[in-house]
Design brief:
The structure holds two protein chains of two kinds. By secondary structure, chain A is α+β, with helices and mostly antiparallel strands. Chain A is built from five helices and eleven strands, in the order αββββββαααββββαβ. Chain A has one domain: Protein Transport Mog1p, Chain A (3-Layer(aba) Sandwich). In chain A, strands 1-7-8-9-10-6-5-4 form an eight-stranded mixed beta sheet. Chain A has a three-stranded antiparallel beta sheet with strand order 2-3-11. Chain A is globular, with a radius of gyration of 17 Å. The chains are: A alpha+beta, B mainly alpha. Chains A and B meet through helix 4 and strand 10 of A and helix 5 of B.
């Protein structure tokens, strides 16, 4: 499956490069980024959201807000910030990641294939151009992927406040975890450094 | 038939919600699918706020531009929006923002959002 995915992605990259106009294009391309190293985490806050178990340095976290309403919400508020620049954690059904675009494209239901393909620049006439617009790739300054074992994390870095989108894909999971809001590189590293999959208690 | 003025008023409502949530303003074109998704977003706020609980279910569970203007126009939306929490507005936008963008891009949705 890994080699299949590699060749699929490589073929898409080549096809896109050949079909792109040579000038005036500054589209974001997915970059592979190493998984952040895990250091000692003595003064850390253990936090589990669904199957995601994290340990966040208390120096980076100003507060955690969990709504008591019917709409499940977890907001992690960075130190020195308020709810208006929180990180909003939620989930999406894995099967809907690509299938919601079925009027434009046909892709297997594996969300990793979708997010890999999303990082390939395309000409405006390509149906993926609209998908990249919806997914905010056209406004992004960077798009990265980091993997460790069964966990794959995609980060769409917007240029404006609160325009960051993180998608955490777990092989075989029925859910994709999404984190939206204001995300600094330090907080990104902190979320990933000690991220493991855990059973819900 | 919705006029350009009606569309502009609906756009102002949507953008106002984004401003409240401190999320970069949505700047798409308003069409009937956008109105439908925005109606769902208002219904979703009812799960985390009482600001719009009084809003009736639209005919067929599908909001339209005219329906939004009739029920929430002339400043009604803005006055009730003040009761909405930041957290609720952010949750609804981050959950439904891509559906709104799909609607303005004219992308047919395989799963049509339903009024809560």
């Amino acid at each position: 499956m890994g080699m299949t995915r590699y060749f699929f992605y490589a073929a898409l990259c080549l096809a896109s490069i050949w079909s792109l106009p040579s000038a005036g294009m500054a589209q974001v391309t997915m970059e592979i980024q190493p998984w952040p190293a895990s250091h000692g985490c003595v003064d850390c806050v253990p936090l589990q959201f669904g199957a995601l178990s994290m340990r966040l340095p208390s120096a980076l976290v100003g507060g955690i807000f969990i709504s008591a309403t019917a709409l499940a919400q977890l907001h992690v508020i960075p130190a020195g910030a308020d709810i208006r620049t929180s990180l909003f954690f939620h989930t999406l059904p894995s099967s809907h990641i690509a299938s919601k675009y079925r009027s434009l494209i046909a892709l297997p239901s594996d969300p990793q294939l979708f997010f890999d393909r999303l990082g390939v620049p395309v000409p405006a006439s390509d149906p993926w151009s609209k998908i990249r617009t919806v997914e905010q790739l056209d406004k992004a300054v960077k798009y990265t992927k980091s993997s460790r074992g069964a966990i794959h994390v995609y980060w769409i870095r917007g240029s404006l406040t609160n325009s960051h989108h993180l998608y955490i894909v777990i092989d075989g999971s029925p859910l994709v975890y999404a984190v939206d809001g204001e995300l600094t590189p330090a907080l990104y590293d902190a979320i990933l450094a000690h991220l493991v999959i855990a059973r819900e208690p | 038939m919705a006029t350009d003025k009606d569309k502009a008023e609906v756009k102002a409502m949507i953008q106002s919600l984004y401003v409240l949530a401190n999320i970069p303003p949505w700047d798409g074109e308003v069409n009937e699918d956008v109105a439908r998704v925005f109606g769902i977003m208002l219904a979703e706020t009812q799960k985390c706020s009482s600001a719009f609980v009084w809003v009736p279910t639209p005919p067929g569970g599908r909001a339209s531009i005219i329906w939004l203007i009739s029920n929430l126009g002339k400043g009604v939306f803005h006055s009730h929006q003040r009761k909405l929490s930041f957290a609720c507005a952010r949750a609804v936008i981050y959950t439904w923002g891509s559906a709104l963008e799909m609607a303005t891009q004219g992308i047919g949705m395989s799963r049509i959002p339903q009024w809560a």
